[in-house]
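re: ur question from earlier - yeah i can do the single chain one, its not a big deal. heres the input i used so u can compare w yours
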Amino acid sequence: MTYIITEPCVDVRDQACVDACPVDCIHYEDGKDRTLYINPEECIDCSACQPACPVEAIFPEDEVPDEWQGYIAVNYQWFEDKDAARAKINELKPPA
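and the output i got, formated as tokens:
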């Protein structure tokens, strides 16, 4: 299991979770991504990121609220095809 960053992070990208992560598994590309992504291969399921998130956007994969289930696939997709993941984020939450 991994942790998933969901919609409240989109366009916020606070990065307190990045500082709290002991294995540096939270990624994004500055100027390209609207949210952060947790690498499922690097995540050690320690939960350190979850309380650090000021917008409560991080959930264990099996606890992601129904309305944000689409973010699970996007999180995995980003590590395979960043452009496709970015397009899906824009579908899930259109830019303002």
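The chain has a mean pLDDT of 96. not sure if urs matches, ping me
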